[in-house]
Amino acid sequence: MYLLKDYNLNLNSFKSDFKDCSDFLLREVVIDGEKAFIMAMDGLVDTLQLNQTAVAPLLRIPLDFTTPEEHFEKIKTTIVGSVEMSVAETFEDCEFYLMNGFAVFVLDGHNKALVMGAQGWSRRTTDEPTNEAMVKGAKECFVETLNDNKALLRKRLKTPHLKLKQIKLGKAAKTPVVLAYIDNRADKSFVKEIEKRLENAPLNAVLDYGCLEPFIGSDIKSFFSSVGNTERPDVLASKLLEGRVGVMVEGTPFVMYLPNLFSDNFSSLDDYDNPPFYATFVRLLKYLSFVISAFLPALYVAIGAHHQEMIPVTLLYIVATSEEATPFPLVVEAVIIHILYEIMREAGLRLPKPIGHAVSIIGAIVIGEAMVSAGIIGEPMLVVVALTAISSYVVYPLYESVALLRIIFILLAGFTGIYGVVLGAGVLFTNACAINPFGVPFSAPLSPLTKDSLGDTLIRQSWKKLSERRVRVTDFEGAELDGK
Amino acid sequence: MENKAKRGWISSRQLLFILFTVRLYSLLIDINSLADFALSFALSVILCVAAARITVPKIIAGVLALILTFQTVLTYLNFTKSAVHPEFSQPLLIVLICASVIYAASLKIEALSRFSAFSAAVIVLALLIAVLTNLNAFNINYLNALSFEVKDTAYNYFKCIDLPVVYAIVSPRVNKNAQSALFKSIAYSYSLSLVILLFCVCIMGTAADIYPCPAFTLFQLARVGSLSRLDILFTGSALLAMFLKCSVLLYCGIYGLTGGKYEKV
């Protein structure tokens, strides 16, 4: 609904909309004989800044004018000192600006409102990232404030080609969401498609980035996500330079980027600070850790239950002696221990930190000592679970996917031995190969395979060679482009 | 922009990976003498030259693909029953294979072609491990024991139509150079198979032609320290290749019988 020229109608409408909102600030003033009112939300604006840049000058400096329109224009151009300023024409726009830390000024006889940036809410400092720690990388991360996140990114990419297009999502909450991309790197159709999908998301409120993920992810149901997320500005900057698109949501310190490829889970910015030989070694370790975390328990169950001939005699003796004393078959034992492990992990995550540590200790004692001593599980199984758990943390972005897959593979191994595990792996990887987030194969650049693509995937090339390459995800073999 | 990828289409290299894996799997499972190898090679070349020149009706290719799908599953089950695990319960495995293959075929040719690179890499890596772990038993003098006896049945030679059948269905959806991929796949798969066959003879001597699947025996003989049974590596990688082959053949079967409407769904 558009603002009206009638002062009282505008005022009453806002008062009615913000009835019982104790944080709604409204002050009526008279400026050069004309009635006006200024609105803001308590806690979202810096009142001192608002007073210095808008309220005080408005009340003190006299103006010459003949019409309300001229008065409004003079206030806008000569009086208000706020850098961030705009004009709103509807009640909805005014309310949106209010919710985002702007002050709104409405003048009698004029059907437009002046909005002035005076944001001043409490904000978290850009501390060290908690989920993406790096040994040699930068020590700052995104925070919950969208403007701060935009600034953090801009600090890294000092170019006007970095576009930060802001849209409002959620029918009720109108959450600001920013599409970040580099206009001469990202495919234009790709950006448009993401924007279209986001705008068509039938959501009432966007409280976290996760609720947008299904609307911009792949259509194919999979354990793997084609939407990546990061809390590091340097990581996002590097992704944008590869032609990807970032999606920032107000109120969340995690930024999504698209497309996320399978190989992205195995590289980190630390790789580029380390010598190539060491970075390559670490990267291969990550691939190995993924295999261990997904398949080791299943292989142990398959070999222990169905293919004992594979185990060397001395090891077979140890396994057999240990399993002889336990009451459950290997498959049941493996499922129980993994579910227990996930319960304890979840408890450790959700509880306050000091209690979380206690849960970890109790968990270690219960699983490690008591269950083995009581003869509920065998010692080799404990070694397998410990190795699996540690490996799964090496490739943390895939943790959620692997946690459930592991149990499925254990069950397959228990019933059909190695055949079930291999077929399960076949189905899993074929499914991953079928995902094409925005036309880019999820399995790229590993498959479709090219000689060049291996340069920064399985191994990490030297900076001399990397600097010659300008990788764009949309240039990978198998990526479908517009105009085809 | 040079990239010409389109959804539902694959590159020549991806077709090569599919055809290579499909043929190599059959060769490793079925061929156990040089004469069989030579006959199979000759037949494959003739059939592939014919397939490259003649357009096989899709419906015929589709029916043949479905027959080959069943035949491939049956061969693998027979292999697991006779060579791997005589006491292994098969009904659950059959259900699992069918479910996996149907799901994979439903993901269509692009997904299958991408997976084929992975499958090919796994089987080649497994063969490399088998060769390296058997090097200490290698004896070139055993080559005198090469068998030129034709042992394979006509039924097994029927399998040589797998490449022309897959080619007939998939080649119209290849960006370019489909023929080159067809002939390269024959060259690569038969070369690798020949190397493995000769290596088996150099390891096993006169015993090589006794085994129905010498490549599998090669894995059985492999030894790394006290780890003496690496045959599971062969069973696993062959199962992965069988899974790919059946999925591709099933896809071809459905595609051929529905006249290409399947890919558009």
Describe, in plain words, how this protein is organized in 3D.
- The complex is a heterodimer of chains A (484) and B (265).
- In chain A, 46% of the residues lie in helices and 12% in strands.
- In chain A, helix 5 crosses helix 8, helix 11 runs antiparallel to helix 12 and helix 11 crosses helix 14.
- Chain A contains 15 helices and 10 strands.
- In chain A, strands 1-2-4-5-3 form a 5-stranded antiparallel beta sheet, with helices on both faces. In chain A, strands 6-7-9-10-8 form a 5-stranded antiparallel beta sheet, with helices on both faces.
- The two termini of chain B are 28 Å apart.
- In chain B, 71% of the residues lie in helices and 0% in strands.
- With 265 residues, chain B is mainly alpha-helical.
- The model of chain B has no long low-confidence stretch (mean pLDDT 84).
Instruction: Please provide the count of β strands of chain A.
Output: 10
**Multimerization status:** heterodimer
Low-confidence stretches of chain A: none
Secondary-structure element pattern of chain A, one letter each: HEEHHEHEEHEEHHEHEEHHHHHHH
Helix content of chain A: 40-55%
The first-to-last residue Cα distance of chain A is 43 Å
Number of helices of chain B: 11
Output mean pLDDT of chain A.
Answer: 86
Q: Biggest sheet of chain A, in brief? A: 5 strands, antiparallel
Radius of gyration of chain A, CA atoms, in whole angstroms: 29 Å
Query: How would the global form of chain B be characterised?
Result: globular
* Structure annotation, total helices of chain A: 15
- Biggest sheet details of chain B: none
**Based on DSSP secondary structure assignment, what is the total number of beta strands of chain B?**
0
- Largest interface, by Cβ-Cβ below 8 angstroms: which chains and how many residues each? A-B, 45 and 43 residues
Structural category of chain A? alpha+beta
Strand content of chain A: 5-15%
Structural class label of chain B: mainly alpha
* Poorly predicted spans of chain B: none
